[in-house]
Write a structure and sequence with these properties.
The chain is globular. It has 11 helices and 8 strands. It has a single domain, classed as Rossmann fold (3-Layer(aba) Sandwich), CATH 3.40.50.720. It is α/β, with parallel strands linked by helices. Helix 2 links the parallel strand 2 and strand 3. The chain binds NADP nicotinamide-adenine-dinucleotide phosphate. The site of NADP nicotinamide-adenine-dinucleotide phosphate has 26 residues, from helix 1 and helix 3.
Length: 246
């Protein structure tokens, strides 16, 4: 399968490495050009290309850019083949992204993204930290394998995205339509809390739309304060914090 990845941060590069290792033809682009993408982060297989080449003839586009950059890549995503499945990994964090009125008012992030791209998206790989994604991949059937929720309205696209999630080393869990994808957004019990497939349904079910934005902002405030004192908090600290607050 031909896969184009837009965004070469920790999630995009780990996706490129894993998906190329399973035999897919993977290209990846950022906004500054292929020379600025670290080859070591990609490993063997994936190819860094110019942004306008990353959607050429692809079966799948994975967009992994900051939420406030979604409008900047919209024209590129719209130019992908009509048959391409578009998967989005983004999360809205207002202290970083600025405020977006519709999402602050309760629109699911993935629906807002979908509107920008003018096509359905599948939401996947958003609810796992880059550290867990990088370090906790395991083979299918491994005990305590972590799970990743996958939301979407296009059932064929969702099935394909779930297969790719499995190939990246995690159980894929169908978390329902995009209208329910707020249950895997920042501030919810399923978000960056390292759940197994057995644990995810209860975590998604406990999500409280009236509290998740406040809990997201509380967690960010604690992390920011901690970082001022000790530098970037450890992955263990982050996991304990999200499990306690969300
Ligand atoms: N980090 C995590 O733990 C994590 C976990 C799950 C989901 N997410 C979400 O996944 C997304 C990516 O996060 P990340 O931490 O991996 O990456 P990031 O550090 O946010 O990096 C963003 C990437 O997007 C690229 N980008 C920005 N504007 C672009 C444009 N107009 N055209 C092409 N590329 C563009 C940047 O390239 P340039 O530098 O060249 O502009 C950079 O490679 C975010 O929405 C984030 O919230 C993050």
């Amino acid at each position: 399968m031909k896969i184009g990845i837009i965004g070469a941060g920790p999630i995009g590069t780990t996706l490129a490495r894993r998906l190329a290792a399973t035999g897919h033809e993977v290209t990846i682009a950022n906004s500054r050009g292929p020379k600025t993408i670290n080859d070591t982060a990609l490993g063997t297989g994936a190819r860094a290309v110019e942004a306008d080449a990353v959607i050429d003839g692809v079966d799948v586009v994975i967009v992994s850019v900051p939420f406030n950059r979604v409008p900047d890549v919209a024209a590129l995503v719209r130019a992908a083949p009509d048959t391409a499945v578009v998967i989005d990994t983004s999360n809205y964090v207002p202290v970083r992204d600025g405020h977006i009125e519709a999402v602050d008012a309760g629109q699911a992030e993935s629906l807002w993204v979908s509107e920008r791209y003018g096509r359905p998206v599948i939401k996947a790989w958003n609810a796992i930290t880059s550290t867990s994604f990088d370090h906790h991949a395991t083979d299918a059937g491994s005990p305590d394998r972590l799970a990743i929720p996958v939301a979407g309205d296009d059932q064929d696209g969702k099935r394909l995205a779930m297969t790719l999630v499995e190939e990246t080393g995690f159980d894929a869990f169908d978390s329902g339509p995009l209208s329910e994808s707020w249950r895997q957004q920042p501030g919810t019990p399923a978000y960056c809390t390292d759940r197994t497939a057995a644990e995810l349904p209860a975590a998604l079910g406990r999500a409280d739309a009236s509290r998740s934005a406040r809990r997201r902002d509380l967690a960010i405030a604690v992390l920011t304060e901690r970082a001022e004192v000790e530098g970037t908090p450890s992955a263990e600290y982050l996991l304990n914090l999200t499990r306690a607050i969300y």
